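[recover] target loaded
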């Protein structure tokens, strides 16, 4: 198996076989992200991907149960190529329960409903989509390259195709100025299609990114732990999703709040209210997360 550069994957894919299908990210202009700046985006040849799948089968045997195809935005691959490697993976690993890729709304929306249906039929189960925010002002400021309407369209299309949607909310990325609208409009966007998963992440500046420069110059002020927790509380207050699992599954968060919406909404808000009674000195200071 061959890997180029640092391979990134969601924490929920910790137990998955990782086979690079693409290198880098085709957008690669998000102001907060420093993950793929050292490489130019390209799709790996299908035969190379298949060779790595065969090598993985030789090494691990046929019992692999979950597979993630990095890098960023693997959904951008031509549909017939992605269908080909998904089917091949399932022939190599007959016990696979889940195949997952990254894909932003912009690139998901380039696929027709028929193409997404073909991917589902081939065996694509879940897509990780970095929404970050559902507020159009914040999306523009972080150079996400998409809009709330496009996020809703992509999420709706995926759900109609039967592909699970794992969405990410990036707490604090709007800063103090846009915190309220970031939370409320993100909830409105998520409510429009109720993704299967809503995953909480907390923003901190990555060295070498535009938002790091804004942080160092004082143009962007990091929120305090309590400010961030209040933002997450406001998001939860406004979420009306049906059957979405809310997860705080990353070490950079100030809270460990998890539950099923709408069933556990009040319990999660109560947990946040308790955390807001704690002295802020008990939390990591915001700048400790800066890379």
């Amino acid at each position: 198996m061959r890997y180029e550069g640092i391979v990134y994957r969601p924490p929920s894919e910790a137990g998955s076989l990782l086979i690079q299908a693409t290198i880098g990210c085709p957008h690669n202009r998000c102001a907060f992200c420093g993950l793929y700046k050292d490489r130019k985006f390209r799709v790996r040849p299908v035969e190379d991907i298949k060779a790595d799948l065969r090598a993985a089968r030789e090494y691990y045997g046929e019992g692999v149960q979950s597979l993630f195809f990095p890098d960023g935005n693997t959904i951008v691959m031509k549909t017939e190529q992605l269908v080909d490697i998904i089917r091949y993976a399932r022939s190599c690993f007959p016990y696979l329960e889940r195949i997952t890729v990254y894909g932003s709304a912009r690139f998901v929306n380039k696929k027709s409903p028929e193409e997404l249906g073909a991917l589902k039929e081939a065996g694509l189960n879940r897509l990780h989509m970095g929404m970050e925010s559902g507020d159009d002002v914040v999306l523009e400021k972080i150079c996400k390259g998409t809009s709330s309407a496009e996020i809703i369209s992509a999420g709706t299309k995926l759900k109609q195709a039967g592909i699970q949607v794992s969405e990410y909310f990036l707490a604090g990325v709007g800063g103090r100025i846009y915190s309220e609208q970031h939370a409320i409009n993100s909830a409105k966007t998520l409510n429009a299609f109720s993704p299967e998963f809503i995953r909480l992440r907390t923003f901190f500046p990555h060295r070498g990114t535009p938002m790091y420069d804004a942080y160092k110059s004082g143009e962007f002020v990091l929120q305090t732990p309590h400010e961030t927790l209040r933002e997450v509380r406001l998001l939860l207050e406004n979420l009306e999703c049906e059957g979405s699992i809310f997860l705080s599954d990353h070490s950079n968060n100030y809270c460990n709040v998890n539950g099923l919406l709408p069933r556990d909404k009040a319990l999660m808000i109560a947990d946040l209210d308790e955390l807001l009674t704690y002295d802020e000195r008990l939390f990591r200071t915001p700048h400790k997360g800066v890379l």
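[recover] notes: The CA atoms of residues 204 and 289 lie 6 Å apart.
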